[in-house]
């Protein structure tokens, strides 16, 4: 980003992290809490309950509620859906409410195609019946797919760019300032030990002072921009 030629830079930023939660426990494990808190200020986290076909509808609903309670208790910032505009039609608003209420998405995966009533579908076959991956009555896969590649893809990219990446830049710049300050102090000590090189050292110190001043101004500008963003997490956490 700081180079002269910035036209051919490939954007390798990750816009979304699908965090899979085991269906066999009683909610988030300590390692889940630890990892999500490590990730939540770097990327948009979308929690998923894996292998949800191992749960009854009642168990699935209970686990969803438990996971959301733990996320709130541990101050984990998962991806938050933006509010609908007032002029959106009622169908879109209902769709948005359904997506929000489905989190964490309970999903089922399958790499096989089975036949149901003469129609081939992707699913899993059991003795008691067939679980269809793309049947909204069976799991939330369709809702997740719709959200990722249709309704909220651009919002995920915008949050990555405007919040997560800007937070990273501010942290990186603050670390550079600390490093420059340490180098400045080292030069100051060396000039006291070598009076003959004081003029050269003073020039280097002046350059470091200018560099620190420039970074301070950039950091202040970025912090001001982040504070004006209504979706920026408090204290960057």
UniProtKB/TrEMBL annotation:
Keyword Transmembrane: no
Matching InterPro entries: G_SEPTIN_dom, P-loop_NTPase, Septin
Recorded GO MF terms: GTP binding
Pfam family, one: Septin
Domain Septin-type G intervals: 1-175
Family annotation (Gene3D superfamilies): P-loop containing nucleotide triphosphate hydrolases (3.40.50.300)
Coiled coil: 170-225
Protein name: Septin-type G domain-containing protein
Organism: Magallana gigas
